[in-house]
Amino acid sequence: MDRHIKNFINYLAVERGLAANTVTSYALDLKQFKNFCMQRQISDVESLDRVVIMNYILDLKKKGRSTATIARQMAALKVFSRYLVDEGWLETEPTENMESPGVKKKLPAVLDQEEVARLLEQPRVGNTPGLRDKAMFELMYATGMRVTELLSLDVNHVDCEHGYVRCMGKGSKERIVPVGTIATKYISEYLRRGRAKIKTSTGQKALFLNMRGKRLTRQGFWKILKKHARAAGINIEINPHTLRHSFATHLLENGADLRSVQEMLGHADISTTQIYTHLTDTRLRDEFKKYHPRA
To answer: Which helix H or strand E contains 270, and what residues bound it?
Structure first.
């Protein structure tokens, strides 16, 4: 079984081109399943059947695993079993017609436009860290990029003259996203007055750097965002993707086409983008209740 899992993980990374984080998640989930099987002397994939899968799910429930965790494990096992069938190791899929536990999709945290404005005003552009933070926040809100995409940018991925950025999304899919004048202004200033002052090693291509001249990490970005959010008096619980969610919601609130927002966000399926329509609907209901005399 260990060999089949390794081959499957390699298949996901090489042939399907899934993102590294997704591949790692599959590997961890299947490692837990393999350990469960080993404890029950199930060592070969030909022995995998519906009963084994159901017993594993029951075991997860007995251990108090969350609904979301069990649903994720089921998703991994479904993909793995389909792979085993395609490769000829199983005749039928043991997970066929097995339903995952329902997971209520949590709506992401979103800032209103006034809160975004306050956040974007916090970095002090008179010094290098502040200018970098300002450029990062403006670019993220202007494009809706994922944090990983933002921090993976190299200097040559941004064209300030023509106002666009080349972004590498999930599954190594590249997309071109337009960038507004305010964001390009601060990126240009950061390159000229900020990044140029940071001592870097030869050949460092990263656009956004820490003060040691290395590519800024996700953890570093998270600390920076929390610091400026506190200074802006933002009380909701935010996360590294809050500006991305706010970007999408504000576009839809102001009349943008859902397909266009999907393309800018890099969503493979429009159903993923549709969560933001729920956010705008919720906000409309809140406004109605707040201001209508008969609400």
So the answer is: helix 270-273
